[in-house]
Amino acid sequence: MREILPVWGELAGFHADLDPAFTPSPQWPREYGAYLRALIGRDDAMAVIARDAGQIIGYAIGRVTALPPFFEHRFRGYIHDVYVRDAYRRQGIGRRMVEEILEWLRGRGVNLVELTVAANNDAVRFWERLGFTTYMHQMKLELRE
Length: 145
Prior knowledge:
By secondary structure, the protein is an alpha+beta fold. Helix content is 34%, strand content 22%.
């Protein structure tokens, strides 16, 4: 999993350019590495890795989340950290990784899948082509001292 760190670093830099709210901490390699290690072996998480000549060119992570029992669709899928390196984009790699996660979620009885994507990220069209629709708007307010 350590091989994913440089790829996540690219993703984090891309997001930080979209909005400073996404800026990773200076300790991100250690912290993200710990996060990945915690996911390994869990029944409620899945990582898909795309390789070319042994090098990681993309990855995606999916999870099953549980809401309180007063929701009808209590168990939901959540997709995050989908990333394909620039040179490999528009070849269907991202789509195949997401489809693999969706199939894994279906196998766990999940029928509602969520994700977040920055409003100014061109990837919004990617998700729409996969059938995702906007049903919530996430908003922020920066409090200044």
